[in-house]
Every structure is written in C-alpha cells, then in structure tokens.
Amino acid sequence: MYFCDMNRHTGTTASDDLFRKRGEELLQRSAPLADRMRPRTLDEYIGQRHIIGEGRLLRRAIQVDQLSSLIFYGPPGTGKTTLARIIANTTSAKFISINAVLAGVKDIRDAIEQAHQSLSLYGKRTILFIDEVHRFNKSQQDALLPHVENGVLTLIGATTENPYFEVNKALVSRSRIFQLQQLTGDDLKEVARQALTDKERGYGSRTVHIDDDALEHLVRVASGDARGVLNALELAVETTTTGDDGTVHIDRATIEDSIQKRAVLYDKDGDAHYDTISAFIKSLRGSDPDAALYWMAKMLYAGEDPRFIFRRMLILAGEDVGMADPRAIGVVVDAARAFDYVGLPEGRYHLAHACLYLATAPKSNSSMGFFDATATVSSERQDDVPNHLRDASRDKEGFGHGAGYLYPHAYRDHWVAQQYLPRSLQGKLFYQPSDQGFEKAIADQVARLREARLEAMVESDDHSPLSDGPGSDGETPVHQQWLERSLGSRGVQLGSIRATLLEKTALRPSALVLDLCTRTGLLALEAARIVREGGVWALSHSGESLTTASQMASRIDPLSRPVVLQTDWDRFEQDLFAAAGVGVLFDAIIGRSVLTKITDKKKLIGRIAGLLAPGGRIVLAETVPSAGQRLSALVDFSEIDPQARALFVECENDLFADRDDPMVNWTAKSLGDDLSAVTDGSCMVTTQALRERRRIKPGDIDFWFRVTDGTTERLSLGERCARRLDEATVRIIRELFHRKLDHQEVEWHSEVAYVVMTAAAGAA
Fold this sequence. Notes:
The chain is α/β, with parallel strands linked by helices. It contains 31 helices and 14 strands. Among the domains are: 48-179, Rossmann fold (3-Layer(aba) Sandwich); 185-259, Helicase, Ruva Protein, domain 3, CATH 1.10.8; 271-378 and 404-425, Zinc Finger, Delta Prime, domain 3 (Up-down Bundle), CATH 1.20.272. 46% of the residues lie in helices and 13% in strands. It has a seven-stranded mixed beta sheet, sandwiched between helices. Helix 16 runs parallel beside helix 18 and helix 20 (437-458) crosses helix 22. Mean pLDDT is 79; it is low at 1-12, 381-401 and 469-488.
C-alpha cells in the first residue's frame, strides 16, 4: 500500500515541495546577476532613504507588518519591485504578485477569490502586488476598487508613469503614493560593491578588481538605474579572462564595451561640466541650433541629469528669449512636464524640441531691466541690502572665463556672427528644417543666419583705415581682439546688405547670375533660392574660399546649387568661359566688396561689363572706407589745446583720404562718376549709412595709437600723429581716449555704396 503525505492546505505532497524548492534553487543560481542580487531585507536595500530610512513611515509599516494600500512611482531600476519582494518576505499576510502586462480579467478574479478564501478560512489578509499597474485599463482598475475598499485586498502597485495621470483617481485616493528617486552615484557604487563582495549571490568568491575610472563611467552612464549597473558588471566579469594571478581585472575599456557607451570628457563636478553647459547656453543665445544640439547631446551622453538641462533652458527662455517670444517659457515648461510624464529614452524628443525652439526663437533681453533695478538697490547704503541677497558671482570676470565671447544682445537684431561649434566641426549641420508647417517658415531664416555667420567669420576686417593694409603682418593679440569686435556685428550687417543688394538686382526666376567674389556663398546661395529656373555661377579667389563655398553649396539640391570656380582678377573671363561656355552672358552680375581695394576700378568694371547680357544689371555693394567712423567724433576735445585738436583731426583725415591708398582715395560719388563713363546704359550709386553699438576696450585704443616696425603698408593713426605732434601731446590725447572710452559703448558709423549699372538693351 502506498501512502502519500499531503499538505492539507495546498494539496501538494512533501516530494512535490522538495522538487519545487530544488527547481527554485537551480533557477536562482542561473538567474542574471541583477535578479540574484535583489535585496531580501530592508538592511540590504540601497537608496530611497527618504522613504525607508530609519524612523520613516514606510520602514515602520513594513517592520510591524501594518501596511495600507501603496503605489510606488519612479523610473526603472530604482527598486519598486524589490521593495514589494521585501514586503513579501516580511509580511505574515498572503502575498500575490501579478504583472499588468501579462495578467487578464481571469487573473484578477482568481486573486480576489484567493483573498476571500484566505480571509474567511484562515483570517489572513492578502497583499496583491501589481507590477506596471498603469497598464490596467479603467475597467480592470475599477474591478479592484471595492475589494480594496472593504479590506479584502491590500494593493501595492508599481508604475513608471505618474499615477495621478495613469491610475484611477479612486484607487489613488485610497492609496499612499511613494515616489522613488533615481539612485545617486554613491548608491550605484554601493550596488556594484555589494555584487562584487557577496559570496552567495555575487562574485565574492572570485577576485574581481574594477578600476576607479571604470566604476565612475559605469555609474555615470547607468543614470540612476541599478539594474543597468549590475547587467553591465555581469557582462564585464563573465567576458573577461582571469589573469595569471587569479584576478579578473576590469578597466574602463571593458566597461565601455559592456555598457556599449563610450566615455567622454565630462566631470559633473568639474570644469568640463560648467564649460559644456556654458557652451550649450551660449549656443542657444546665439541662435545656433546645430551647436546647441551638439552640446546637449554631449551632456546627455555623459549622463547629465535632463532636469538640470531643462532648468537651464527655462532660465534662458526668460533671460534671452523673453518678450520677443513669450511662448518660449511655456514651451519649455510643457516639454519638461512631458519629459516627466514619458521619461527616457523617448523623453529626449521633448529635450530636443525645447532646445530647437529656443535656438530658433527671436531674442530679447528686456527682462534684464530687473538687474538694472538690482544695481540701483546695490548702490544704496550697504546695510540696506541683506548679505544673502548680494551678487555672489561678481568676481567671475577676474578669472577671464568667456574671454572673446560676443554677447548677442549687444548687437542689432540680437544676433552676432561667431562660431559656436568646435573648430573641427565648423560648418557642421545637425538640424535640417523640414518644409512643413511652422518649420517651413524658419528654414530659410536658419540657413541665412548660418551663411551670414560663416561669411563674417572668414572675411578679414580690411575695409577700415584703422586696420592694417593688405599683406601686413600685424597679427598682434590686440589686432586680433579688434578684428573680433569688428566681426561681431558683421553678421547682422551682412544680412542687411545681402537683402538690399538682391532687392536692387530684381532677379527673375529664369535669370543667369554671376557672383564675382564669393567667400562662403553669402550672395550666391540666396540668389540660388530665387533663381529656380536659371542658374548661379560664383567666382572664388582663393583655395580656402573655394572649399568653403563649395561645401555650403553642396547642401542645396544639385539642380539648384551654384557652380563655384576658383580664379583671379587677371584671368577670370577665361576661366569662366572654359567652364560655362565661350561667350556666355549673364542677366545679373552681383558682388560685395569687389572694388574696395582695386587700383583701376574703371578697367575692372569694363571687363566685368563684357560678361553682361543686353539689358542686364550689375549690382555691387562696396564698403566705403573713406566714410568710416571718425574717432575724433567719439570724445569731447574741449580739454585739449585747440591747435593740437586741429592737428589730430588733420592726421585722422589723412588716414581716411590717403591719395596713394586705393582703399581710401575714393568716395561713393567719385566711384559713380568713374563708372558712369564705362557703361552704355545707366549707372546709379546710392549709399546706406550703417550704425551699430560697439563696446570700446583699452586694447582697441592702444591698437589705433600703435607704432609699428615699419613693415605695414599703411601708417597707423598713432604714427601719423607722431609726425605732426610732439610725444607729450600724443600721450595726452591717447590718455583722453582711455578716460572717455574705456569699456564704453559707442555708436559706430560706416557706409556702404550700392552700384547699380544697367546695360542698354541690345548692347553686348
């Protein structure tokens, strides 16, 4: 006779229990490290001290087994399911676990029936743990409600989504919400150390050494996810060959391979952190979406907290976009809320959306008026301002950080031409606007800003008598600073000049256009957008400009892009005929700064006119150096001897009207008179006065009054003064400029002449 020892509650035999236990042990040993290392008790649990630290409500409730319904809410890998398992190990109540992704109505009914039986037969409460509870639909959640209300079930839900949105309000109101936070770097290091020292479940029985920088990279890339740390650590250990000394050595390269993410130079507590966020903010402020995306991608790749980036974008939306687009703050706030709602990785779309919106938004810093008020308050008696309200960053400039950075709000249209990407990535595009909806309206705007920015960066400031002449070697640091400030407003001015020039050209869609002197394609690319049925040719006069203009042109549709040729003024007709065809004639010939330094301007225009079709038009925009800003107009000379002042003005006039210098020995009027004699048609020259706000620095004044070693072709203002004034008087005038202009903003004047020549109908 066969006797079987049955468990009277479950109906299973002792042998069944033995086999099941044996199977569970085998499964545990073969389980992934992340599963094996799940904490079994509160003492093993790492992190979330704000809810399970000593004396905290949840810890006390678990210890005394007096739990009410709970919902654990937090990102993946923060320990929601682990907390539920710890409760299962410590509670005397019946514990049932289901996953909302896999469970159906039948599973819910079975759990409720078991709970009723447990309570009626044995007087035991039932805790029902539902992982990913937000996956239950409304009717499934409603089915639980009466049983939670009458105490048959104690619900513990786990969700990565905000329960106030995704869980029925009735269930939420009957549950206590505990929000779990991403684990800190120290928490994740402790998780890794625990796995390496645990002999029963981890690698404590093996000698494993992980380098400090490898552990730092692992923790940073894991971004608060303990499961990610353990999975990468397991892969690293299991795939690394044991050394001769019996040690498994894990370096950073091994960790990078294991977690499939390269380490980047980014210390979240050091210079790289602050330098990178500074580059990001300055790129947004400078309306460069490509650079902004690059720097944000670098921060996220290195493990930066997305909420930190959102906070900085929210500040910029108020400080730098401001009233120019009041919607910007709302866009960033909505994107941040959406990110909290969605989480990573999909939340990166909302980061990119906020970043691109801010980068392409118009800019205004009118809110800086608040800081004017702060300055007024700080000028009052010291005891009127509490110590904790004073400016803590007043010494920042003393360290020289940000030297050479051009503040966009100091210039017209709140935009300034400067390179925001690293030098090695100059011209690299990350953002390509589509042709749909609102984005279609900003596509051309973004392209034009890029072109103007690049044009201003590559051209030299050789259109002012205050700069060195052609071929000079005066590349002193002071000169470079002067060039940077000169180029600072050039982007805005170039955009305006381009628009005016092309308006005067009156291009038809079928026109054949020649750009006489392209550097980056500033005019040629815009002409190509207008001339859809014709064509655009552009002449470059250096290998560098050929490369740059060709790269810019390559981004346009092949059928529409300009054809760029390298040539020089001695043979440009031959090169053009060789490429475009002998006798080719153009409907429009355009150019910027073509004649400025040409000695025989009439002769060159005559050659250019030979390429013009009957009735065609030549339109040039020429900076007029002789009409540039006079320094004597910037200061009050009343304290200087009148005779000395008169001599200084004479020196300045000589600088701006040197008869032997082809750059300054002409005016807009004389240019018009000379060119009128060349054409069979009409010639009209008009001028446009340009004004900008420019901040004068001490180095600028020193540059104007410099004395060179005689190698420059053009005498400086200081050298001209030394010929007519004694040394003491020159020093007094120089000191006057320093006292009156150092670090002051002035209105800087310049002039551009537009030459419009129209060929007679029927003329060749």
